[in-house]
Specification:
Layout (H helix, E strand, L loop, with lengths): L2 E11 L4 H10 L3 E12 L8 E3 L4 H11 L5 E4 L5 H14 L5 E4 L4 E2 L2 E2 L7 H11 L2 E2 L3 H8 L9 H12 L5 E7 L5 E8 L4 E8 L8 H14 L4 H21 L10 H16 L6
Helix pairs in contact: 1-7, 2-3, 3-4, 4-5, 5-6, 7-8, 8-9
The structure holds 3-hydroxy-5-(hydroxymethyl)-2-methylisonicotinaldehyde.
Length: 285
């Protein structure tokens, strides 16, 4: 079985980061090792969460794993809380990257035009350094704007999205996946670039009239799960768009407040059926 390591915080309540990456990747048939960077009582959209920093545990944990000779097919990073954590994760990449290890970086730090609370304005500069080491980066539009210095705009257009893609390519990753792209009314999806092949790809689905927290982490985890199951990037992106759309639809049907995340558990069986269809050859990629 393939083993992935995911490095991000664990927010005890408020479905995001490790509490979605772990179940989704496990359900997709991948052993998912975790390196929690912090424990928070909730994610930071709630007020005053309890925060236990685990930064200084990253190196001793890595030392132990190196002594045991553990290896990983992919290293997946999400929300990281400080420049120091980025430095330690960069060292982790150097230590554990083998020829075929995929370095998958979700520069989770901002949304809706703003940095998440708790980050200093200099944080995106640090995140740029991590992105430059990655094989694949998966920012949303706010993160892409912070990483490139191209001003954020609410109103999207093709020229702006391509400028973002060009700016992100300059950081040096092999693949870029830009999420939250909406070029026609009522649609939302992704724009991706394979920088080595010089190929762009776009895909969208129906845009539902709601916005929920945590969908970016669900999307990134599903893309990685698809890739590690042998899908090419386009197929993995279609799979993730479909899963997030079905999940948002299922969440709308639930009348309870969803500030703490979407009902991704209810739609996991559908994700697994799509993966099985791919494995049996009825979905290409
Ligand atoms: O979903 C990204 C995320 C992860 N972890 C924590 C967060 C957020 C977004 O707000 O606060 C702690």
């Amino acid at each position: 079985m393939k083993r992935i390591i995911t490095i991000q915080d664990i927010s005890c309540i408020g479905k995001c980061s490790l509490t979605v990456a772990l179940p989704i990747l496990s359900a997709m048939g991948l052993e998912t090792a975790v390196l929690p960077t912090a424990v928070l009582s909730t994610h930071t959209m709630f007020e005053n969460p309890v925060f236990v920093d685990l930064t200084e545990q990253i190196r001793p944990i890595s030392d132990h794993w190196e002594r045991e000779g553990f290896g990983f097919e992919a290293i997946y990073t999400g929300y990281l809380g400080s420049a120091r954590q980025i430095e330690l994760v960069t060292a982790f990449f150097q230590r554990f990257k083998r020829e075929n290890t995929l370095l998958f970086v979700d520069p989770a730090m901002a949304d809706h035009g703003k940095l998440y609370s708790g980050f200093s304005p200099s944080f995106p500069e640090e995140m740029k350094k991590l992105c430059s080491k990655a094989d694949l980066i998966i920012p949303n539009l706010t993160e892409a704007s912070l990483l490139t210095g191209i001003p954020y705009q609410e109103q999207q257009d093709e020229a702006w999205l391509h400028k973002l893609l060009d700016g992100l390519s300059a950081l040096g990753p092999r693949f870029i996946v830009l999420t939250g792209c909406s070029l026609s009314p009522g649609r939302i999806g992704v724009l991706s670039r394979d920088c080595a092949a010089g190929r762009d790809f776009s895909y969208d689905t129906e845009k539902l009239p709601v916005s929920y927290h945590g969908t970016g982490d669900i999307f990134a985890s599903t893309v990685l799960g698809g890739l590690e199951n042998g899908m090419n990037l386009s197929a993995a992106l279609k799979l993730a768009c479909g899963y997030v759309k079905d999940t948002v639809q299922a969440t709308i049907r639930n009348p309870a407040s969803r500030r703490y995340g979407v009902d991704f558990e209810t739609t996991l069986p559908g994700l697994i059926r799509s993966l099985e269809a791919f494995r049996s050859g009825s979905i290409n990629g």
